Amino acid sequence: MATAVPAAAVRTTTKVAKFGGTSVATAAQLLKVKAIIEADPARRFIVPSAPGKATSSDTKITDLLYLAQQLGAKRQPLGQVWDGISNRFLTIVKELKLDLDLAPTLAEARAKIEAGASADYAASRGEAIHGRVVAALLGAQYIDAAEVVAFDRSGRLDAKTFDLIAKRCAGPGRFVIPGFYGATPNGEIKTFSRGGSDVTGAVVANALGVTLYENWTDVSGVLMTDPRVVPEAKPILEITYRELRELSYMGASVLHEEAVFPVRDKGIPINIRNTNKPDDAGTMIVAERDAGHQVVVGIAGTKGFTVINVEKALMNAEVGFGRRLLDVFERVGVSFEHTPTGIDTMSVVVSDKQLTSNGNVSKIDQIVEDIQGAVKPDAIKVVPGMALIATVGQGMNHAIGTAARLFSALAKARVNVRMIDQGSSEQNIIVGVTEGDLAIAIRAIYNEFA
Ligand code: ASP
User: Fold this and answer.
1) CA–CA separation, 53 and 92 (whole Å)
2) What is the pLDDT of residues 36-72, one digit of tens each?
3) Domains and CATH numbers, the chain
4) Residue 22: CB within 6 Å of ligand 1?
5) pTM reported for the whole predicted model
6) How far is the CA of 233 from the centre of ligand 1 (A)?
7) Contact at 8 Å (CB) between 392 and 243?
């Protein structure tokens, strides 16, 4: 007699597999990609980037396409730049012995770019053309992203995208949806910002409600800290979306910033994997993790901040002080990063990039002058050359002794901590140190917690 199978047990596992530029840079790389995909029937929705650098001295196809567009805009011949682009694709097709004639697709793109097509159109061709190559290699169905990824009039992703993708990918088999671009309501091609194939992958994962979003790249996951500072930095096995966001904010570049939100909304984990080492587990990015065994997941630091310290006796009793101070920054168009406060002091931390506009003219003198007028402080001190370091771990602010370990590690390394911000997210402790102390401070924190 047949027994009923509980619904949960029959839920099929499906995965989106996004492959970054270096993973798909050459025919040899594409063969690795094919083997990875075919090793798992759940890998049904494939999102490729354009071919990236095949060697370190090589140029990414996307960069060549932007160059071609600049020539086309001036109605200059595309010459060698175009030859470089088309030869890369034609060589891949030839080496893979694919039954695919790219000549008409390449000719159409060339003609449009020569006639002055937009930068977004030109750049998107890297993914659009490469998607056809990947589909031919896998015997999968190719879907032009312009038909399913919709931007609204203000340039934001239109919610109808999710339905469009779900409808087009409803059948059996594998589908290839090129990353990075979509179309506006009037049919013009528009791209996400650079690295945006990550976003396409996340959007496809959300639309199809897959079990896992695999993001295949050339490293075995997110490292605990910058390997240029700590060469032996270990990979992170598990990290939450929010922890990753904190690390990326401070400069750790792993995924496109906007790639987390679409998957987080549906609780779909992201697995960062290495195309060149497919047996490595990589990093799992999840909604929740058990922080018991690993309080600190990562450490990231960046140079280039200025702190403006404002002091005034009885500031705490002065209603509206904070608003008037921050209003100064708003009026000069400077966004701030942090505002640590004391009883009679309030500091505003800003990125140096925010302080310079129109070339090199700093807005700092204007800010100081406006603060004098707005809050009549007893003293203002501007401290340039600061670096911020975020030590990230969910709930670490509450884990007894974590802050003590952090600060004694810094003290032992003789690093002078100039600013502390625990933030309200409970995900991190941020310290400010002089730029010269950045590397030594990161190493000290890593050695304490790794
Ligand atoms: N090819 C695009 C870029 O280089 C998008 C991507 O690779 O994600 O930015």
Assistant:
1) 14
2) 999 999 999 999 999 999 888 899 999 999 999 999 9
3) 10-218 (3.40.1160.10), 298-449 (3.30.2130.10)
4) no
5) 0.86
6) 26
7) yes
